[in-house]
Design a protein that fits this description.
With 139 residues, this protein is mainly alpha-helical. It is built from 5 helices and 3 strands; from the N terminus they run βααββααα. Strands 1-3-2 form a 3-stranded antiparallel sheet. α4 (65-79) crosses α5 (86-138).
Length: 139
C-alpha cells in the first residue's frame, strides 16, 4: 500500500458505491476511514477501498451486515496471523472457507434464477415475434 489518502468522493467513484452507502458502512462499523483531514473530511487508504470492495461483492449475494463484519474480522485477523497460534489460524481459515462455500451456493442459486429469467425473456420474444408475424400476414 502506498499510504496515499483519498477523500470519500474518490472512494465512491472507485468502488461504485454511493457516498451515503459508504457513510452507512462507517456508521455500522464495517469500514472506518483511516484518517481525517484537518478540515474533518474522511480519508481512506487502499486497504479501506479493499474492505469496501469485499462488502460490495458480498451484498448482492445476500450476506447480512453481521456476516460481512464476521468475514472482515476473520480476514483482518488472518492478515495479522503472526499473533495467532496454529489452532486459532485454522479456525479463522475455516470461517473464511465457510463464507467461500456459502458464496458458491448463492452463486449457483443466482445462475438458476438467471437461466429462468433468460427463458422467460426468450418466451416473450417468441410470443412477440409470432404476434408480429401474424399481424404482417393478415394485413
Amino acid at each position: 500500500m502506498d499510504g496515499r489518502h483519498m477523500q470519500i468522493g474518490e472512494v465512491a467513484a472507485r468502488t461504485e458505491l454511493s457516498l451515503r452507502t459508504i457513510r452507512h458502512y462507517e456508521e455500522t462499523g464495517l469500514v472506518i476511514p483511516s484518517a481525517r483531514s484537518q478540515g474533518g473530511f474522511r480519508l481512506y487508504t487502499e486497504t479501506d477501498v479493499a474492505r469496501l470492495m469485499v462488502i460490495r461483492r458480498m451484498k448482492p449475494l445476500g450476506f447480512t451486515l453481521e456476516q460481512m463484519r464476521d468475514l472482515l474480522d476473520a480476514t483482518d485477523r488472518l492478515d495479522h496471523a503472526e499473533t495467532a497460534d496454529a489452532t486459532e489460524r485454522e479456525a479463522l481459515l475455516e470461517r473464511v472457507r465457510t463464507y467461500e462455500q456459502n458464496a458458491g451456493r448463492k452463486i449457483e442459486e443466482l445462475r438458476i434464477q438467471l437461466a429462468r429469467a433468460e427463458d422467460f425473456a426468450a418466451t416473450l420474444r417468441t410470443r412477440l415475434n409470432t404476434a408480429h408475424s401474424q399481424r404482417n400476414t393478415s394485413v
